[in-house]
Amino acid sequence: MIFSPAPLADAFVIEAQRREDARGWFARTFCAQEFAQHGLPTEMVQTNMSLTRTAGTLRGMHYQLAPHAEDKLVRCVRGAIWDAIVDIRPRSPTYCRWFGVELSEENSRMLLVPKGFAHGFVTLSDDAAVTYQVSAFYAPQAERGARHDDPAFGIEWPVPVLDLSDKDRNWPDFVRGPR
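^ thats the sequence. predicted structure below, dont judge the formating
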């Protein structure tokens, strides 16, 4: 795997290295030893998967409050998405900044989303399938979110958002905390 720091503190883009032959290819998508060597979380307790039928659909921006905050390792296993993260840790040097990257079946990239980040994506293809390995169990009482178009972040989505859930459309404005 190739680990590249993202421009936000503690976030990484990770590229699986494919070994190909006439049969197809093989790649590791997680190795606790390699993650530990880069100071990244090594314990993932749950794996989730989503399928989004239509290009232009947005899911996010989601996060969980402490003590249920979670690291996420996100990858697109079918189709393509543009994945976005926002650092919402008030003491971070990259507080309220965002970063986006294309994850696809073709490029085999993954995004390590640290605790204290809001996360979401817009689908670039129909039938986009995404897996998320997470370091904490889902806790409904700790679930929070921010709108994809919240002016506190100014995320520049690469395609028009054509569909999103009522829940994601109606998150309240993000309120910046003291730094």
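The chain is about 5% helix and 40% strand.
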